[in-house]
Specification:
single chain; 242 residues; Purple Acid Phosphatase, chain A, domain 2; 6-stranded mixed sheet; 5-stranded mixed sheet; 24% strand; globular
């Protein structure tokens, strides 16, 4: 897989973001990942996702369908974020997308890439630690699955998401981004067979060559100007889709 290009997207928050972000994301899926690439989705692509045994969310169905179609042409891998961790077996079994609720380690150009969303490494705001524990708890997931789907989705909508938090609390988000960078750097120094640590969550772009050819990478938020990143044999780069 030395010639594989990784195309990396995080934090689209589709469902809470403006409708135009979904339209742009569909165009992105049609045009940017090409045969030979691997698409990495680094959490919170959906602002809320819960897969019941026989029901998935109707909202943003076109994106789910587009990812399913794309996964027939090239590898697609996804980790869950604190807003879309509850994918259960839908992505792997039905969509053909390699999925893990927390982390994936994937072969890539020049070495493995470790992909995690990044929540749980820090507490940038009150309730963040609680949210991470709740979305990771098998007990909470099992209890939530007992709710009728319409009620479960209604509750999720009422919980809402403050998409403007980063603008009103830049110091807290910067502190979280700094902690992510330190964690990624320490991980790369400890695990020499890793070429890249890839995270999202903070909505802050990061492109740091920790050692020659070894990277910490955060693509930034798709939500903030349709941002994404790439990693190939020549190195890493940040991009803005248009």
């Amino acid at each position: 897989m030395e010639d594989t290009r990784l195309v990396i997207v995080a934090d689209a928050h589709l469902g809470a973001a403006p409708v135009g972000d979904e339209e742009a994301f569909l165009r992105f899926l049609d045009t940017v990942p090409r045969p030979g690439d691997t698409l990495l989705l680094v959490g919170d692509i959906f602002d809320y996702w819960f897969s019941y045994r026989r029901v998935i969310p109707r909202r943003n169905f076109r994106v789910a369908a587009a990812l399913t179609t794309l996964a027939r042409r090239l590898p697609v891998a996804m980790v869950g974020g604190n807003h879309d961790r509850w994918g259960d077996t839908f992505w792997d079994v039905d969509a053909g997308v390699r999925f893990d609720p927390h982390r994936l380690r994937l072969p890539g150009p020049g070495g493995d890439a470790l992909m995690i969303h990044g929540d749980g490494l820090h507490e940038e705001r009150p309730g963040a630690s609680w949210m991470h524990r709740a979305t990771s708890s098998p007990t909470v997931i099992a209890l939530y699955r007992l709710l009728p789907p319409d009620l479960g989705f209604w509750i999720a909508d009422k919980m809402g998401h403050n998409l403007g938090y980063a603008e009103t609390h830049p110091e807290a988000v910067q502190a979280a981004a700094d902690r992510q960078r330190r964690w990624a750097t320490a991980t790369l120094e400890r695990e020499r067979d890793l070429r890249a640590v890839i995270m999202g969550h903070t909505h802050r772009e990061a492109l740091l060559e920790v050692a020659p050819g070894r990277w910490y990478l955060n693509p930034g938020a798709w939500l903030d100007g349709w941002r994404y990143a790439t990693l190939d044999a020549s190195g890493a780069a940040l991009h803005q889709f248009s």
